[in-house]
Amino acid sequence: MNLWRLEYLRLVRTYRVWILLGIFGFFAVLGPATAKYLPEIIERLGGGVEVAVPPASPELAMAQYLGNALQIGLLAISFVAASSLAFDANVEMATFLRTRTTVTKILEPRYVVNMVVAVTSFLIGSAVAFVLSAVLIDIPRIGGTVVGSLLVSLYLCFAVAVAGLFASFLRSVPGTALLTIGALIVLSLVGLIPAVRPWLPSDLVGGYDALIAGGDFVYWRAIGSAVVLSIGALALSVHRMQRREI
Questions:
Q1: What is the distance between the terminal CA atoms of the chain, rounded to a whole angstrom?
Q2: Do residues 3 and 101 lie in contact, with contact meaning Cβ atoms separated by under 8 Å?
Q3: Residue 225 contacts by C-beta under 8 Å, 6 or more apart in sequence?
Q4: Of the four, 48, 161, 169, 242, which is 20 to 30 A from 212 by CA?
Q5: Residues 102-120: pLDDT tens digits?
Q6: For residue 63, which of 136, 118, 19, 129 has the smallest C-alpha distance?
C-alpha cells in the first residue's frame, strides 16, 4: 500500500471526509432555504414584532451558504489538515515513516489529498446551493458562481498550506489547528485596511458574493499572493520538517 492510498483511506475510514461533506452539504441546504422562508418563519414566530428581512434572492441564498459554511468549514478543514500534516505528533508513526522514506514523499500525498478533499467538499456544497437556489428562488449567475467557487477553492488550498506551516513549528494537532484558524482570522482583520485588502488571500472569499451579484473581477492580486504564499508555506514546512529531529 503506497502513501497516497494510505492517506485516502485514513480520511475515509476515520469519517473526516464525511464530516467535511456533511458540513458543506448541510449549509448548502440551509442557505437557500433560509433565504426563501426566513420571512415566513419570523412572521410565525415573531409574536407580532416586525423585523426587516431582505427579499429572497439567489445572491442572498448563495451568500448565506458561503457565510455559514465557511465559518464551520474552515474550523473543520484546519483540524482535518492538522491531524494529517502534524504527523510528528505520533512519535511511533513518525519514526516508522521517516525511517522508510523522505519527508517530501510523506507530506506530498497529505497536502494534495487534504486540499482535494477540502475543495471538493466546498464545490459539492456550492453546487447543491446553486440548484436549490434555482429551484426555490431563481437561478444565480452561472459564471459568477463558477469563478467565485474557484476563488474560494484557492483560499481553502491556502488554508491547508498554512496548517502545514504551523505543523512544522508544533507537534500538537490541536495547537496546529487553532493557530491556523487564528492566523486566518488575523489575516481577515488586516483586510479591513483598504489599501492592503486587495493583496490578501482572504479577499478571494469576498469574490464569491461579489461575482454572483454581478461585480467585476478584480482579484488578480489576491490570486497572486495566495499562490506565492501557499508555495512559500509548503516549501518552508518541508524544509523545517526535514531538519526536525524526532
A1: 24
A2: yes
A3: 199, 200, 201
A4: 161
A5: 888 889 999 999 999 999 9
A6: 129
Give the whole-angstrom CA distance, residue 83 versus residue 228: 24
Q: Which three cell numbers stand for residue 203?
A: 479577499
Would you say 85 and 117 are in contact if contact means Cβ atoms under 8 Å apart? no
Q: Angle formed by the axes of helices 58-85 and 173-190, to 10°?
A: 140
pLDDT, tens digit (0-9, with 9 covering 90-100), for 140-187: 999 999 999 999 999 999 999 999 999 999 888 999 999 999 999 999
pTM over 0.90, yes/no: yes
Buried b / exposed e over 21-39, threshold 16 CB at 10 Å, is bebbbebbebbbbbbbebb
